[in-house]
Design a protein that fits this description.
Blueprint: H1 2-21, H2 30-43, E1 47-52, E2 56-62, E3 68-74, H3 101-121, E4 127-133, H4 146-152, E5 161-172, E6 176-177, E7 181-184, E8 186-195, E9 199-200, H5 210-228, E10 235-244, E11 250-251, E12 254-263, H6 266-285, E13 289-296, E14 301-303, H7 305-319, E15 324-325, H8 336-342, E16 345-353, H9 374-389
Parallel strand pairs: 3-4, 3-5, 5-16, 6-15
Antiparallel strand pairs: 1-2, 2-4, 6-16, 7-14, 8-12, 8-13, 9-11, 10-12
Helix pairs in contact: 1-3, 1-9, 2-3, 3-9, 5-6, 7-9
Bound molecules: zinc ion (2 copies).
One zinc ion (ZN) binds near residues 101 and 166.
Length: about 400
């Protein structure tokens, strides 16, 4: 399968560059979805549904009977101005594929090509559902991102297992991470206001000063993880915005804060929200008050052990067991978590770091990946699906 994937690697790279040049933000992936549908049509033998979960595309190939495996790729870009200097860099000012979703989409089109030929060769029973998902990076007005929108539109109905990959710009090419259990963090965000009366800078004793309360509130917030959460359970509380005041001699009436909460354990997730509330309530001890809005985001991702074992077996046979790190995890969030709630599944991280010593983090203007990783990613997904449909995997 790796040889077959290497043979179509130039086509995967061509598609990736085409998508990279025209990045589209969440739920605006119109051009990308059109390219996906056209490419699936060219491959042939694939039932295609467009407009799934607003701008998603679902393709299905198979014998109609037997089990169905879903393979997911996200398609959206980010509101970041690209600074890679690549000849195929973004032509849309302010937008950029800075997370590698262009690669995911192109790789899955490559997988569709490979599996078309496997079906033609015979011996497979069952179906593959290609899930080209919009909006992994952002939620719509109703708080839903692409994965739950696709699920609402029935994209996972009848899917027995679901798999996916995500490129990792910090992991060397040829390396992959594949974890059992928690694979991505739950993410929630909060917006809070510390409020007081404000007043004249020369007469602080006549009013209540939210800037004075900011320090104890921040101290309480930053103490949540070290003093309140079980040290054996990962959690993050990060502030991203602190805003207050306009001029030197006016005490403002409010200070605004925004932050993000990350966790794996569902109980820790609830605890973080309670503790944030308690931290803001510290303002009351100083004569002030607060308002707090917590917005729930993606749940934690869960990799099913059976499915990770299938993929680990495939990777071991393709490139050797040394290529897999089964321990590494981060506190990043992924809305693929909604899909693995619907059907047991797993996502692995595909090493795609450019080997020149420069750090090109995800969601940065210089984010970039080594395209030599693509064939391996396509081979792992396609071979897992092939073995699944050939009845070679223990379910
Ligand atoms: Zn991202
Ligand atoms: Zn991503």
């Amino acid at each position: 399968m790796l040889d077959k994937a290497n043979a179509i690697a130039p086509e995967i790279i061509r598609l990736r560059r085409e998508i990279h040049t025209y990045p589209e933000l969440a739920f605006q992936e119109v051009r990308t979805a059109r390219l996906v549908a056209e490419t699936l049509r060219e491959i042939g033998g694939i039932d295609i549904r467009t407009g799934v979960g607003k701008t998603g595309v679902v393709g299905q190939i198979g014998t109609g009977d037997g089990p169905t495996i879903g393979i997911r790729a996200d398609m959206d870009a980010l509101p970041i101005a690209e600074a890679t200097g690549q000849p195929f860099a973004s032509q849309t000012p302010g937008n950029m594929h800075a997370c590698g979703h262009d690669a995911h989409t192109a790789i899955l089109l490559g997988v569709a090509h490979l599996l078309k030929h496997e079906f033609a060769a015979g011996g497979l029973r069952g179906n593959v559902r290609f899930l080209f998902q919009p909006a992994e990076e952002a939620q719509d007005d109703e708080g839903l991102s692409g994965a739950p929108r696709m699920i609402d539109d029935g994209a996972l109905d009848g899917v027995d297992h679901v798999i996916a990959l995500h490129v990792d710009s910090t992991l060397p090419v040829g390396q992959m991470t594949l974890r059992d259990g928690a694979s991505s963090a739950a993410v929630d965000s909060f917006r809070g206001w510390i409020t007081g009366s404000g007043g004249h800078g020369a007469y602080p004793h006549l009013g209540t000063d939210p800037l004075w309360m900011l320090l104890p509130v921040m101290q309480a917030l930053h103490g949540i993880v070290t003093r309140r959460v079980d040290p054996m359970k990962p959690a993050v509380v990060s502030l991203g915005v602190v805003r207050g005041g306009t001029v030197s001699n006016v005490i403002p009436a409010e200070v605004y804060l925004e932050g993000t909460l990350r966790s794996f354990d569902p109980d820790v997730r609830e605890q973080l929200m309670t503790e944030v509330e308690r931290s803001f309530a510290v303002a009351r001890a100083f004569g002030g008050d607060y308002r707090l809005e917590i917005e729930r985001g993606y749940p934690a991702g869960h990799n099913d052990t059976t499915v990770t074992n299938w993929m680990a077996g495939v990777i071991t046979d393709l490139v050797g067991a040394e290529a897999i790190d089964r321990t590494r995890a981060g506190m990043g969030a992924e809305d693929f978590a909604y899909m693995t709630r619907k059907a047991p599944g797993a996502m692995f991280m595909l090493g795609a770091a450019i080997d020149d010593g420069i750090s090109r983090g995800h969601h940065t203007p210089i984010f970039d990946i080594d395209e030599r990783a693509f064939a391996l990613g396509a081979a792992v997904l396609a071979e897992t699906a092939r073995r699944y449909l050939a009845g070679e995997l223990q379910r």
